[in-house]
Amino acid sequence: MFEGFIHPALAWGALLAGVPLLIHLLNRQRHKPIRWAAMQFVLAAYRKTRRRAQLENLILLLLRMAAVALLALAISRPFTGERSALTPFTESRRDVVLILDASASTGYRESVSSVFESIIERARTILGDLDGTRGDRVRLFLGARGAQLLSFRSPEEALAMLTTLSAPTDESLDLAAAINAVATYAEEDAGSVGQSALEVRLLSDMQRNTFLPSDAFSAAGQPGDDARNTPPLVRALDRLEELGATVVVEDLGPVPLQPPNLGLEQLAPLEEILGPGLTSDISVRVRNFGAQGRAAVRVALEVDGIRQPSQKIDLDARSSAEVSFAYSFRDSGYHSLIAMLEGDRLAIDDRLAAVFNVPPPVRCLLVNGDPANEVERDELGYVTAILKPPDDDAFASGPGGLYAPFLIDEVTANAFSADENLSPYDVILLADVASLSPRLVERMEERVAAGASLILTMGDHSSAPSSQASLNARLWRADGTGLLPVRLSRKVAVRSRRDAYYRVNWFDENHPALSFFADELWRPFLTEVPIFEFVSTEIGQDDRPDAPQVHILASLDDEMKSPLLIERAYARGRVLLWTTSIDDDWTRIPEVAATLVPLVHELFRYAGREPLAPRNVPIGTSIALEVHDFPRSPMLIPPGGTRRRLDGEPHQLAQGLWSLPTVENLDRTGLWQVELEGGRKLPFAAQFDVFEGDLERISAEELETSHPVWRIHRASDDGEDLGDESEGARGELWRFLAAAVLLVLILETLWAAWIGHGRRLVR
Predict the structure, then answer these.
(1) Which domains does the chain have, with CATH numbers?
(2) For the chain: N or C, fewer Cβ within 10 A?
């Protein structure tokens, strides 16, 4: 009769129908017969009505038992197949899950309407066929980076939500997230039966990137596959397959399987932007996602709102090409750029915004531990000559002057005191400094923790045993909280400079400070230059997982492979230790211009590079901007949107450095800004997924063979909807049973009242 129950455990409640019978039997056992002479007249009258009373009581008992049994069955929600004799009594309610593809690719316009507008119109048609008065239910999901539940009750509510959707999102469709959300709902619907009767529909443009798993994952179902290697989408579809559910996909995309489209792929400088006043090449890469080549495609660039002369490029089918714009930034700081293409049928990838930082000159404080009047004898003579421009006026940084990459202030070790203002400096160099006061060390720790870099070089003064003991006591701590990355040990020197010397045995070719020497042409200028003396070190690295790690960037060829250049992070800053001298007392490096000039330039440029939070982030993510003064009254300005106050409180990251409240969920691509009190603006950019512009579509046959859950919606020529057919559909009887319970209770009440009325008349 019943094929199953949604809640089979509750069906056992039908046994409670025996409770009225049990009460009846117990009540019969309470009566004890007592013979009484006058009772014979009562018995004579009772015999006349006995059969009638027994029949009335039996009917009343059966009605009460039926009410209990029917109520238990209604709660357990039995269902039958479509061929059951009880099918006419099942309810015709439909339970529909509708997923709308709202990815950026659905903004494609093949005609007057976009794909997304076609999706909304089709959704209205589907919802219009449902009837909330008969119990039809709809769960409406908007699919993009996540699955947003718009409506979960009636078709009327879902239709009302459709009126609020006018355009697709700027995000890609995470189909695995959408299917997982549906699978969770299907599991609730299946209950303990393990089979779900949900009608799941996906209205999409059939973009191949959405439906096919990434090549980074192995194919599912192969023997020995690790479940972790199964693509997330396949795992989500497997959940639905276990519940016996299918997903009917309606293709509302453009007709061609490979629609034509051009998109901006990248906007970036060809090389690092060194500073203002220098010409930088900005590269714009364009991708042709179509099957046909395109000629004379116009590309434009806008810098800080000023449009630059456009250029033209030719693109082959399914290929990329680059165009370069030469531009000289007048000022340091963050600059906003927008690359633009001629408009086509998908507008979102025809504009690409990015924000670049033009660094100011590196402010350096050089502390000289062994000053002298002659350049050759001065500890910093060679370094100062390399870093400091010959004419400060001619090399003024900014418009009208030549760019100076470094601004130098020099002070002797004796004059270097705790009163020195360290906040303006990006790099502090201690060259052969023998001792430091505790207060000065505290000031340096604060500045380095805020993002500056400290470079220490050794020499005769700092390598003396008393000086090493003082430096270790002030700067080194075993727990890694001191400025020194390692503990200074002892000075090591060759026996005779005529007969022997040390050389660089190994260096990190990928490190920014040393990558210049990775070229075979320049490698000997680092690895073959003699080094006669250096200070050995003891790393003593802390084993705590959160302890700052010591990185050896270059080592010597002595027996111990002693470090020459060592680096360790210190909060937001860094500390570098050069274990030999920076003058020619211990090494020939200062005498070789081809070695010292690039070494000093690259080392100081790397050390002066401020650790900056990225200003270009993917669409849908969050960002927290950093500023060097307290941010007052921050206002958020989205692309083409209205200003609103940025909620939340800023917090201090380090001395003189603040983090603004996080901007959550950047849901539109383009340039965003945070405006501070006084009109200062902090730009940042949200960028779309490049491959969202690849509109290549998956065929119906390929989709259906990729997983058993997929079914393609097909309509006959006369408009009959074949996608709604479902074999083995089940119908629930709970409404019929609930009505039966109510009817039985009414009959029981009327019957009991009639019996009571009749027996009162007999009396």
Answers:
(1) 4-88+735-762 (no CATH), 92-257+696-730 (3.40.50.410), 262-359 (2.60.40.10), 362-607 (3.40.50.880), 614-687 (2.60.40.10)
(2) C
